[in-house]
Amino acid sequence: MGKSRKSTIRKFEFYETITNNGIESGYVRLANTQFHSDAVMDLSANSYRVFTYMKFRAKGNKVFTYTYENAIKDASISRQTFLKVKKELIDNGLIKQLASNAYSPSKFEFSAEWKNYHSKRRDWFTDERICKNAKSKRKQPQRK
Questions:
Q1: Angle between the N-to-C axes of helices 45-58 and 68-75, in degrees from 0 to 180, rounded to the nearest 10
Q2: Residues 37-66: pLDDT tens digits?
Q3: Element (H or E) spanning 95, and its range?
Q4: 105: phi > 0 → left, psi -120 to 50 → alpha, else beta; which?
């Protein structure tokens, strides 16, 4: 017979939690490649906070419900900010909004489109560095 699930649970360290036994009721799972992707790195602070709360509330499911009221409670943001955050998360390919009627909560699903996201900010930064390096590498006329 295999090990029980309780014996294989890795407890959180004392600096990661306030519980005495190191066991939490939930946590956010974020893969290293997604965490360091252009799509996540380009998010604003509010968008990143809401995205992590969405992942927490989804509890590992691909399709989840997240409302404006959830955003107020979780991230303390206004309705207008939530609309901007939602647009940014959709534009960066992290979530998709599923069709629903006006009287039901908004349904979303996590998307894999973030893999195709190409950062505009990073291109600007890299282009600037390339231009500066190219200028400095040009041979300066030697003075006599």
A1: 110
A2: 999 999 999 999 999 999 999 998 999 999
A3: strand 95-97
A4: beta
pLDDT in tens, 58-114: 998 999 999 999 999 999 999 999 999 999 999 999 999 998 777 888 899 999 999
Give this prediction's pTM: 0.74
Nearest to 63 by CA among 93, 112, 91, 96: 96
Q: List, in order of start, the domains of the chain with CATH numbers.
A: 28-136 (1.10.10.10)
CA gap 101, 108 in Å, rounded: 13
Token representation of residue 70? 């959830």
Q: Looking at the chain, how many residues does it have?
A: 144
Two structure tokens written together for 50: 């809401």
The residue type at 30: L
